[in-house]
Amino acid sequence: MAFVSGLWNSLVGCNEKEVIWQELSRLYLDSTLKYLSVSEIDKEEVPIVFGEAHRISFNKSAFGYTYTPLNFVSIYHIDTRKAEVKMPSGQVDTPVIEDNRDGTVSIKYEPREEGVHELYVKYNGEHVQGSPYKFHVDSIASGYVTAYGPGLLNGVSGEPSEFTISTKGAGSGGLSMAVEGPSKAEITCHDNKDGTVSVSYLPTAPGEYKISVRFGDKHIKGSPFLAKVTGEGRKRNQISVGSCSEVTLPGKVSDNDIRSLNASIQAPSGLEEPCFLKRLPSGNIGISFTPREAGQHIVSVKKMGVHIQNSPFNITVTAQEVGDSKKVQVSGNALKEGKTHSENTFTVDTRNAGYGGLSLSIEGPSKAEIQCADGKDGVLAISYKPTEPGYYIVNLKFADHHVEGSPFTVKVSGEGSNRQREKIQRQRDQAPLTEVGTNCKLTFKMPGITSFDLAATVTSPGGVSEDAEIQEVEDGLYSVHFVPKELGVHTVSVKYREIHIPGSPFQFTVGPLKDSGAHLVKAGGPGLERGEAGRFNEFNVWTREAGAGQLAISLEGPSKAEIDFKDRKDGSCDVSYKIEEPGEYRIGLKFNEQHIPDSPFKVYISPAVGDAYLLEVAQFPDSAQVDKPTQFYIRLNGAKGTLDSRVTSPSGKSDDCFIQNIDGDQYSIRFMPRENGVHNINVKFNGVHIPASPLRIKVGKDDADPAAVHAHGPGLGTVKTGVKTDLIIDTCNAGVGLLAVTLDGPSRVAMDCTDVDEGYKVRYTPLAPGFYYLSIKYNGAHIVGSPFKIEATGANLAEIGAQETSSVTVETVQKVAKSAQKLGPVLPNFKSDASKVTSKGMGLKKAYLNKHNQFTVHAGDAGTNICYVGIYGPKGPCDEVQLKHKGKNNYECWYVVRDRGDYIVIVKWGDEHIPGSPYKVEV
User: Fold this and answer.
1) Are 537 and 563 in contact (CB under 8 A)?
2) 3-class DSSP assignment, residue 256
3) What are phi and psi for residue 545, nearest 5 degrees?
4) Where are the Filamin repeats (predicted)?
5) Neighbours of 843 (CB within 10 A)
6) pLDDT tens track for 382-437
7) pLDDT digits (tens, 9 = 90+) for 563-609
8) Running DSSP on this structure, what letter comes out for residue 569?
């Protein structure tokens, strides 16, 4: 990033940096995949059906960058494409498949029955993403409103989804549409003047969207429609497979067994990388890897560190199969200059370059949308579409090495997008050093909540967890206080209604900081998720762990922003911004010229809320149960308008809430949760969120806790290039959740994740020296210490270009620690001598009914320990016993008995009886 900024200054000839965020767009595809097979029976090569290589899913935003919506795979050979339609009667029909000769196919079908049909689309025997698709067939006469089009079935986040509504002969009536789902979807309509309306909506998050089409306030037939939107539109997808070997493993291998198997491949030079295991359609296990050199490779498959039967296997790679970037042919003027808002196209020919992945990154003032088309002759046509003028850096690599001429410098001219930018910079001083025994404080702002529902815990480096005190400093501003007992990194968890607040769990170092930098800055709050026009929207930034430096805050969007900054002088600050015009904005946060994790943040600013501010929530439940109705109340307090509410489940499914007027201005809102986990309830008034919306509620058991996840191992320290390294992610007692591991650095890495007893083992092999950042998220929240800064040293095995990202995601299972170590507080190591304790008093000899019977214990010379007193009578324990410390380890004890008989009085100093104990007392 520093290189790009410097290049910009030198090119435009100015000393002052322009207030923009450099953006990165990336494409990675394997242009040539080869499939080999090894049969353990006859050793013959047999063609196998394996159409989808191992995929690595990526976050929306890697470390400081957002990526282009792309995933292109060119297969070396194409075997089968198959489509079937299952009719309502149960019969199966075959549609017509037409090849469009542009990398896509068209499926045409003429229905013969009315009702819901299912379209099965398979490629090489496996369902394509989203298959089977459901569609409804009407046989109604004209005069009805109907809707059709792909946008009613599926879509890709970040890309418009389209469908058509036909109102021919339907008469007069109001036509209304609504799209509900995990994100706000902007809807645009166009009247075609022929009785049809073209509708387009833009989903910005993956999940299931409900599309409602009403005519005359009634749903049309088939409405609401359910469309599945994939996340590929906002992610950079990468296929890191060069060839695949099919190996027949002995016996039956279950899906659970695959999770405990790991594989690695060792090249003739000694380079060892993890490779991937996947069940093939044949039922066997496929081993996928990228060949980097010619010769015999050794593939090892292990279970819990032990070779399986017939492992290791040998695979031979010829020189022609190894990718050679020097043989890639690139042509086109678009690598020298380009135009904004236009497709700038160049061609890439990899046919004679062997097997390898082609990666393209374009870095500059805007995120350039990338498209790729595979021509009939095997030559790729790649185009990019920037939105801002300026100089762009284009990195083009094949098999992890730059092609000739890369990186290219491209001058882009033309009109910009007229987006307004505002930026402030503030110097952040080093927070005061904390020591053992001093009062430590963590501050955060959360307006509009009830402080009684806040709770905080602090876990020491030794694993001891204790409750922490929360104080309300002023309205909406809270501070967590605790007194540490040891040096090191503490974990501070802050929860509201048993759900982690944005930013939690926090890292808090007692004593000197071990590291510093932008990767240790945290930001969170409602102002980074959504905002409202015409008022200040707030979020928190915590820089305490990052040390001293300069914090830069930038807002970019349709209009200028007013930014306010308040320093709390304890390593935290709160930021507020005010925008007059609604729309989509970007908030960039940089520390010492580097983006902090997950920056830039995309925020949608809604119109001014109006009377929605008057509404308040009452009797909101603490939790709910699956399949049991739950309700709460809304008071309008005189506001006039329409109230509506929807609930969104953890899986992204959205459903209407039932709203009923109770009395005057009070309404009840009821919903029926269908799955466990944290649900979001959106409450809107006149189409605008009320201040407390979205409300969050935990349904059933959701015990996934990122604060309980820990990482350790050599893979978190200094690593060597070309050497396989690993780390352990301990998820014991952290519940079940989604574990996402992302590695950003100067090179792509082969990475895998294996199930082990204490959690999950992640292995990777860096190819280029430099700093890597390892992000570990559990259910979407960073664990303490994440992102981890890792330094790789050694030879450069892959040419460095733009920042590369590798990722793996695992749905975890319940893990319980097998060790016998105690969880919770640990007793100190006392040094004492119980034989030096004395005790005297009438209460050790004789006692009286319903009176205070007293004795004393003197342990001034017995060292340090805990005094225990217990009294047991003929009918069980004594009713009342009180022990009071009088100072200098001298104690006074009295007790009351209610029954006659013999009692036993026990006095212990630590684990040992004092002289005379146990005592026999008559009553």
Assistant:
1) no
2) helix
3) -75, -15
4) 82-137, 137-229, 227-317, 320-412, 410-510, 513-605, 622-699, 701-792, 829-923
5) 22
6) 888 888 888 888 888 887 788 888 888 888 888 877 778 888 888 888 888 888 88
7) 988 888 888 898 999 988 888 888 989 998 888 888 888 887 877 76
8) S
